[in-house]
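Open question from group meeting: does this chain pack into something compact, or does most of it stay loose? Before anyone orders reagents, we agreed to write out a predicted structure and look at it together. Recording both the input and the output here so the notebook holds the full record.
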Amino acid sequence: MRITNRSIVLPPDATRSVHLGGVGVVFRLLADQTGGMFSVVEHPVQPGTLVPPHVHTAEDEFSYVLEGEFGVRIGDQIAQAIPGCWVLKPRGVPHTFWNAGTTTARLLEIIAPAGFETYFEEMAKLIPDAGLPDFGQVGALASRYGLSFVDWAPELMAKYNLKLLGREG
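C-alpha cells returned:
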C-alpha cells in the first residue's frame, strides 16, 4: 500500500465532523488519503462523558492527548492521560476512555488499518436529537465493524460520576 493523497499539506479547515452526543469526531485523514494504512480523527470530548467500553477485532488505536485530562481503562488497567501522553489500545483488548476534567478535552486518534472512521459517520446518523438511539440498530452497526461492547459502563459511571456517550443527563 502507499499513500494516495496528492496534497502534501492539508489545511486545518479541510475537514468535516459529526457529533455522537458528548463526543465529536473531526475527520483529519481518511483511508483514501493513506492507501488504507491508517486514518486519523480528533475527538473533542465533553466533561464527564464516557465512551462505551468496547473491543475492536480489526484495528489498533493510538491516541495522543492534545488538551485536557482523560481517564482510560484498557483491559484491567486504569490510568490518567494528560496532554502529551499516548494511549495504546490494541485490537482484541477491551478499552474505554472518558473526559476526567471540567472542560472539553481533545485527543488525536490514529486508527490502523483505516476504515473504522466510517463507523463514526454511520453512528452519528443513529443518534437522535433527543432521547436514546435504537440499540438494535447500534448493535447491528457495531457488528458490521467487528466491534463489541463490554459491561464496564455502570461501574465506571458510578465511580467517576460519568454519563455515557449519547445520553443526556
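Observations to bring back to the group:
The chain has one domain: 16-163.
The longest strand covers residues 60-67.
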